[in-house]
Write a structure and sequence with these properties.
The chain has twelve helices and seven strands. The chain is an alpha/beta fold and 285 residues long. It has two domains: 198 residues, Vaccinia Virus protein VP39 (Rossmann fold); 66 residues, Winged helix-like DNA-binding domain superfamily/Winged helix DNA-binding domain (Arc Repressor Mutant, subunit A, Orthogonal Bundle), CATH 1.10.10. The chain has a seven-stranded mixed β-sheet with strand order 3-2-1-4-5-7-6, with helices on both faces. Helix 2 runs parallel beside helix 3. 41% of the residues are buried. Bound molecules: S-adenosylmethionine. S-adenosylmethionine (SAM) binds next to helix 3, strand 2 and helix 5.
């Protein structure tokens, strides 16, 4: 799904750090997130906000965008990404809020987007709302990137979308904290959905259905133990071994994030190293 023309023109004219291919991928991922509350961390002048806001309007969602609007370290005078035209003569500090307000006005998105001015540390203390989408693009230091993930990703509902920007697995390409956040999210049970440039889209596993409940002796537990004990078996072989409806029970394990989807779909399933391995260890006592 591409960004409709009027929004695309505003996004292109808005200052920011989102290349067109990543903007298109963010818009497409958001379009899949469904209605509910969406949260963007790291607004700057609103380039990504326009992409998300356009998708929010179409999905019947509401977008909150959070930034203190004084810029990150790299936006300060003397740093690589400093833009002197964004300095407020009154304070002498960087000030991106007016640019955001103009972008939302031009895009006609004022009713779809709530602008939240503050630090993520301030907002984390009182935020309680469940999220259908979370976009992390704020401060990229290890401490704050980890803080933002810890504070807000836990609010992403089952099946909800987590997008992370500026992800560089190779240190030669860029800073590592957003990559560390993605690795942590995968350990926490988020599935990776897409990679576009430095944008990663993940999805929280859907709520665990009844078949996957892991009481000892339950179908889910029996299948998980069979998979971990016989890696590489096909679904048909697992069905023969366990006598279970492997497709139905396996679907539950997939949704619970305990087996990997691509391999399961091919018929040879592996227990996920994180939560799946811990579940197996617990079942084995
Ligand atoms: C990389 S820019 C966001 C770029 C934007 N998403 C775009 O599409 O161009 C990061 C933003 O995070 C904001 N920021 C940095 N630390 C923050 C914090 N602790 N709380 C809130 N915002 C913060 C900065 O002010 C900056 O505008």
């Amino acid at each position: 799904m591409t960004l409709p023309a009027p929004y695309a023109a505003v996004a292109a004219a808005t200052k920011g750090f989102l290349p067109p291919d990543e903007g298109a991928a963010l818009h497409a991922a958001a379009a899949d997130a469904g209605p509910g509350l969406w949260l963007e961390i790291g607004t700057y002048c609103g380039k990504s906000t326009v992409h998300l806001g356009a998708a929010a309007r179409a999905a019947g969602a509401h977008l909150v965008t959070l930034d203190h609007h004084r810029g990150s370290e790299e936006n300060q005078p003397g740093w690589e990404w400093h833009d002197p035209s964004l300095v407020d003569p009154y304070t002498g500090r960087l000030e991106t809020l007016p640019s955001l307000r103009h972008a939302l006005w031009d895009a006609g998105l004022d009713e779809v987007v709530s602008v939240l001015v503050g630090t993520t540390q301030q907002v984390a203390g009182w935020w309680t709302s469940q999220l259908a989408l979370l976009f992390l693009d704020g401060n990229h230091t290890e401490q704050v990137a980890q803080h933002d993930y810890a504070a807000f990703a836990s609010h992403v509902r089952p099946g909800g979308v987590l997008a992370v920007h500026d992800v560089f697995p190779d240190p030669a390409d860029g800073g590592q904290p957003p990559w560390h956040v993605v690795q942590r999210a995968v350990r926490d049970g988020f599935d990776q959905v897409s990679v576009t440039g430095s944008l990663r889209v993940l999805r929280r596993s859907a709520a665990r259905p009844a078949e996957a409940r892991l009481e000892p002796g339950s179908p889910g537990a029996r299948l998980l133990l069979a998979i971990s004990g016989h890696p590489g078996l096909s679904a048909a072989e697992l069905r023969h071994l366990t006598g279970l409806d492997v497709a139905a029970v396996g679907r539950g394990l997939l949704d619970a994030g305990l087996v990997t989807s691509s391999r399961f779909a091919r018929g040879d399933c592996w227990v996920r190293t994180g939560s799946g391995a811990r579940a197996v260890a617990a079942l084995r006592g």
